[in-house]
Amino acid sequence: MNLPIHIGDTINENNIKKAIRALFSTGNFKDIQLLQDGTELIIRVKEYPTIYKITFVGNKTITTEKLKENLEMSHIRIGQPVNNGMLSSIEKKLQDVYYSIGKYNAKVKVISTPLSYNRINLKFSFQEGISSKIQQINIIGNKAFSSKQLLSCFQLHGQVAWWNIFNNSNYYRETLVRDLKNLRQFYLDRGYIHFNIDSKKVSLTSDKRKIYITVHITEGEQYKVIGVIIKSNTTEYYAKIEKLTHILSNRLYNNSKMLKIENDIKNILNTCGYAYPHVVIYPEINNVNKTVKLRLDINTGRRYYVHNVRFEGHTISKDAILRREMRQMEGTWFSGDLVNKGKERLNRTGYFESVVVIKKRVPGTLDQLDVIYQIKERNTGTFNFSIGYGTESGLNFQASVTQGNWLGSGNSVSISSLKNDYQTYAEFSMTDPYVTIDGVSLGGRLFYNNFKANKADLSDYTNESYGVEATIGFPVSYSNKLRLGLGYLYNDIANIHPQIAMWRYFNSLGHHRNFNDKHDVSCCDFTFNYGWTFNGLDRTFFSRHGTYSNLNGKISIPGSDNSFYKITLDIRHYIPINHERTWIILARSRIGYGNGFGSKEMPFYENFYVGGSSTVRGFLSRTIGPKAAYLKNSANLIAKGGNRAVVSKSNDAIGGNANAIASIEVITPTPFLNEKYINVIRTSFFIDAGTVWDSKWQNNAQTISAGIPDYSDPNNIRISVGMSIQWRSPLGPLTFSYAKPLRKAEGDKLEQFQFNIGSTW
């Protein structure tokens, strides 16, 4: 502490006053006395009590963490001295926080309890009351646009209908400020350059339950841009910049387009190494002719080299794993495009909740900077063990251990198992995305499956299979990757219940079976697997814009018991509707086709199935499409010309060799959800449509008389509408959906509420 009095000084009234002021200014003392004892100066002080404990009671709307932040801003924390003036001030500030969210009946009281050793406990007691509701929002002074058009810019609403779960009539001061900015932007984007908000008034009824908001505006008149004058300290990029500005001339003044062009010019210069360009557009207004001439002032600044690329915030991922995703190299010209690509690639790994890029000049240099990626890691490992019961599967036991970033190496490792009434499944898989420095990946999996179709609403048979696959991936470009691989699959089929489609497959192999033939059939297949992926998404989980396409196929190779091929194409496209990307349209489609070659057919156990949470929601998993046509009696097969076989219709699904699925989904903000969970929970409304068919199916007199439809018809499309909630839980991605079928067919089995553990889109 710097007192204005030192040993040897002469004491007078002036420096005594200065000393007292200096001591009081510390805020630690409530009483100070200066006494003289001969040549000694005695300073006697009485300290304010220090805070020992802070508690909160009654706060529900505002979290304790938020309240603590407000206290910190007022320097009220444990161990700090406090006086009555500070407590009175913080009471008013907290009261104002409640007023800002429309709780005008809220009461805040601070209770201080003295303790020994000059300490106190502080207890903040809250009576929050009810939120005041917006009764009406009035805009006065508008002539060019209706009040309804202008209020569409507002998030605040008055008298919201009971069924509208996305809007409410609660008042928030910060939201009103944003709404008025949106209103201003609405006019500036339509040429009203002199638009002004003259005043805003928030009025309360006497009972403080209803709020009336009145906004007075002056629209002014529309102005047209008659030209753009570019002034720059370099002519190197003049052509590109001039091309960008063409959209401004001879059109109404548009502030948003102008700001976008400013940003686009900065991006051009960033890409060329100019990390801190100065770009400003000045409007020169002619109020007589109602025109605007835009002057574009560009100063590129210095061109920068990248000194270091650094990473901060990671504790699990190794530095080398992050660095291999970089496209901006150290020691080269800075490129904003390459830096942003590095950010996108880090987001696509799925290892991180957020990635923020910071540019920092290197001290002592004129043309060097560091690029810093600030990273917040997410939990890439999940352990799941669950027991459940399903109407189709009975008692379920499921366990899995998945680590998408094994020991920070970037490798993905997964072990999973499933046991229910109709299936026992186990799999081990591992992928190294960077076997070479160029991004060549290597992956493989081992699996075992014991499947009892007769207990899964499918055609009667059992299939015990196991296999192994290895895949190598080659990066073709930034967004494209090619995959090639080999696989081996063994299938042991037993307990076969005669049905036409299955018998047709066996006949194509030369296994002409009869009704008394109960022995097992085993098949060994070697396959060449191939695939192509285009990933243009902004991030792996809960994408907001971009396109993702995935092509998968396989073909049997010599040495196999079967001769067939199979190919599937999946496409997802995200279109953000609003600037914040909280409203998004998602279009999804999937098509698949398979067939035998030579005289053989594709194995029935390779069929496509439709229905369930990942295809057409609202229908029981895999039950849409062709059904088994069972053969009865000890007769020769239909394929061999017998005439005593009886065809029996059933509801057991058998799938088909072709399918098509399409879905339109509107992703919306989740009602009543805190903003910090926006990247954890996602809500959407959807329309699903899909079908599966058997292109080899041929109806005859027997199948027609049995009432069996034409399963080769691809036009028998099922449609459903519904709502979905996805949650990135600590156990893994969870999806809940409720759907109502709009179009169904005889034999379809419905399941309107569905729950799924799996990937999110």
TrEMBL record:
Give the subcellular location: Cell outer membrane; Membrane
Any keyword Phosphoprotein? Answer: no
State the UniProt keywords alphabetically: Cell outer membrane, Membrane, Repeat, Signal, Transmembrane, Transmembrane beta strand
Q: Might you report a single GO cellular component term?
A: Bam protein complex
- Residues covered by the POTRA domain: 49-129, 132-220, 304-378
Keyword Iron attributed: no
PROSITE patterns referenced in this protein's UniProt entry, alphabetically: POTRA
User: According to its UniProt record, where is this protein mainly located?
Assistant: membrane
Q: Name one GO biological process term.
A: protein insertion into membrane
Q: A Pfam family name for this chain? A: POTRA
Similarity remark: Belongs to the BamA family.
**Could you give the subunit structure recorded for this chain?**
Part of the Bam complex, which is composed of the outer membrane protein BamA, and four lipoproteins BamB, BamC, BamD and BamE.
The free-text function statement in the UniProt record for this protein reads: Part of the outer membrane protein assembly complex, which is involved in assembly and insertion of beta-barrel proteins into the outer membrane. Constitutes, with BamD, the core component of the assembly machinery.
This one is known as Outer membrane protein assembly factor BamA
Please report the organism this UniProt entry assigns to the protein: Candidatus Pantoea carbekii
